[in-house]
Amino acid sequence: MVKARLIPFFVDSLFGFLILVLALEVALAKTGNSPNDQFTFKSEDHIRLQSIPSDDFTSLIHPQFPGHRVRIKKSNFCDPTVNVYTGYLDVNAGAKHLFFYFFESRRDPQNDDVLMWINGGPGCSSSLGLLMELGPCSIDMRKNASTGSNGTTWNPYGWNEAANVFFLDQPVGVGFSYADYGENIQTTEDAAKDVHAFISIFFETFKEFSGRALHLSGESYGGRYLPVFASEIYDQNQIAVKEGRAENVINLQSMIIGNGNTGVEYLYPGKYEIECGVAALEVPFQLINKCVRMKRALPRCQHALKAGCFDQFDLMNCRAAIDFCDNELSKPLRDSGRNPYDVSKMCVGSDLCYAENEMIAKYLDLPQTRELLGVSPHSPSNFSACSDAVGNGFDAHMDKYAIPTQYHVAALLDRGVRVLIYAGTYDWQCNWVSNKAWTDALEWGGAGTYVKEEMRVWAVDPDREAGEVKGNGFDAQNGKGGLAFVTIKGAGHMMSLFFSFFFLAA
User: Fold this and answer.
1) Which SUPFAM superfamilies is this protein grouped with (predicted)?
2) Is residue 303 annotated as a catalytic residue, yes or no?
């Protein structure tokens, strides 16, 4: 095993500049609720973001997306040190409304890159990442005596420390996003079209961001979302160039996935290693008898998945395989009472197993918070961290299994988009073992050199080993992207604050 300092490794072989972006966290707040917006701008009007007022919503339209509109206004939410904006992307002639938060960079908003963060689920709000992980403020778990409710505390390690950051509640039905007539999105491919429209309208209208590097980031089901979203952006860039619209090209630079579910065929073997092996804890926590049963079921599970889901997708056969695998290989963890997102802890609170999630929902449901954010009165009256309806819709289409998402990752790497995969070692749900397995097996132009790379120990300082890392660098001459895989020792699923270590070490 090779030991290396983290920062020199990345500077020498991969994401030097990107780590600075990732060292920061972002948040976004405030949404539109008025059908009669005070201002409407076309993309060619080229207004500046700083000119957006706080007393009413400004509407942005783009000729390339006649059925879409962005409503945006300034807010005082979360981070008093920067300009904060919130709003809605109105889709399908205003029938669907996606809520977003945008925080300017604390360092240099006029020059720093743009980063978008999306939580997983499918169906979970990005406000969880904002207020629990990487936003410029965090939920305050101490009860406020004067209001009887929780507020927020400033986060000095928010990702907007060095990047302009979006948080987007997508697809429709997630968080404060809503539909007028019950419309919904049930596949990642359909969701990608709305995300591309939103980013395009923003970059085209606010020309100060034109050409600025864009990084897509997220966690969990983001391992399915982000490769498809990035592919949609890349493909639409090629169409724009072909049609003589080179000025509409989005400068997509990288994709960052934390504890993602990208290589789903490797998830169950990884779950077994976390639960019954020593991939997470020094002493396995699961009962021996259950581990023996799981070990015997694993080959049958993998065979059924390969036949019904991966070699040739068949909805009924794939569903039967998943039902068997979940019953034999997932149920024991749930029965144990352990937190599937951090097996070193027991589950507390709701199904998401973190008390913070319930506090975030209560805080975002406060009338004064919704007013501060500009939440539409048509948005769901009770904020939910994750939407069962959205999750069930994606599950009905077996969205996670229908298309191998790692194919998108390989294609992006071969077209020069850099990719960072990171994972906490205590996560069971989207564990580091499976993430390492699929990245090692990935077929792409740089695979030959990537698989030869050894895992290296990385450290915040000489006395603080933090995990392991491997990767190969960006090949500018041949236009190949770089791939890096990082583990964070002792971290769980929702651990994006680990990137504050980079900030401290830089």
Assistant:
1) alpha/beta-Hydrolases
2) no
